[in-house]
Amino acid sequence: MGRIRGVCSAMALFVQRVLIGRDEIARRVDEVGRQISMDLERQSSELERRGEPVGPVVLVPVLTGALVFVSDLIRSMPVSMSIRPVTLSSYPGAATTSQGVTVQGGVPTDLRGARVLVVDDILDSGRTLGLLRRLIEAQQPQSVGIAVLLTKLKPSGRAEEVRVEYSCFEIGDEFVVGYGLDYDGLYRNLPYVAAMGEAPVAG
Ligand code: IMP
Ligand code: MG
What we know:
7-stranded mixed beta sheet, 3-stranded antiparallel beta sheet, about 25% helix, binds inosinic acid
C-alpha cells in the first residue's frame, strides 16, 4: 500500500484508498448548504404567503460522526438557526456492522413547531436515522428534513428505508473513515473520506 501524503504512518496504516478528496467534499458541502438554505427560504415565503407561523430552524447533528460535516455545512447556510446535537451510537468500539442503535444523550424535546434538519455522516442500514425521524416526528415539528454526507448504496436493501432529503455523495457498500467517520474512535480527523484496508485487529 502506498503512503498517503500528509498522514502520519500510524494513521495511514489501514487507510487504503481515498474515495472523496478534500476539495471535492468542500465544493459539494458548500453546494448542499446553499441548496438547503434556498429551500428553507422558499418554505418561509410560502408559509408567510399562507399566513402561517414560520417555525425556527433547528439543526440536530448526530454526534460524533456528523461533527466535521455539520461544522462545514452551517458555514454555507446564511440562515438563522439553533443547533441541538444528539448522541446516538450504532457502531460501538471496533464493530464495522450495525449493532442496533443506542441513544446516549437525550433527543431534544422542544421541537414542536420547529423546522428541523437532522444532519448525519452516513446513511447505512437506516436504523439510526429511522429511529431519529420517528422520535422527532412524534414531537410534531413543522417539518423534518435529513441531510447526510454519504449514502451507502445497498443493492440488497436497507434494514429500514428512510427518506433522506439531502445527500452529498453516494458510495459503495464498504466501510469508510475520515471527515468525521471513525473506526473504533479513530480517523475522524482525516480531511478526506477513505476506504479501510484489511480488517484491523482490535486492541
Ligand atoms: P445505520 O444506523 O446503520 O444507518 O448507521 C449509521 C451510523 O453508523 C452512522 O451515523 C455512522 O456513525 C456509522 N457508520 C455507518 N457506516 C459507516 C462507515 O462506513 N464508517 C464509519 N461509520 C459508519
Ligand atoms: Mg453516526
